[in-house]
């Protein structure tokens, strides 16, 4: 899985924890699970 960095690029110095949660949890884990579920449902 490709590491997401958009949040870190935009918010890293201003809100580092938010950027980490945004990239790693929301777009990393959640979206990868959704993609797996969509493939499984076909």
Structure characterization notes:
This protein has one domain (6-41). It is rod-shaped. The longest helix is centred in the last third of the chain and has 26 residues, at 16-41. It starts with 5 loop residues before the first helix and ends with a helix. Helices cover 76% and strands 0% of the residues. It has helices at residues 6-11, 16-41. With 42 residues, it is mainly alpha-helical.
Q: Biggest β-sheet, characterized? A: none
Count of discrete structural domains: 1
Give helix and strand order, one letter per element, not per position: HH
Give the overall silhouette: rod-shaped
Residues in helix, %: over 70%
What's the end-to-end separation, in Å? 21 Å
Number of helices: 2
* Count of DSSP strands: 0
Oligomer status: single chain
Supply database-style keywords.
mainly alpha; 2 helices; 42 residues; rod-shaped; single chain
Topology:
Layout: H1 6-11, H2 16-41
Summarize the structure.
The protein is mainly α and 42 residues long. Helices cover 76% and strands 0% of the residues.
């Amino acid at each position: 899985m490709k590491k997401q960095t958009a949040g870190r690029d935009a918010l890293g110095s201003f809100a580092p924890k938010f950027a980490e949660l945004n990239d790693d949890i929301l777009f990393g884990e959640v979206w990868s699970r959704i993609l797996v579920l969509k493939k499984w449902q076909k």
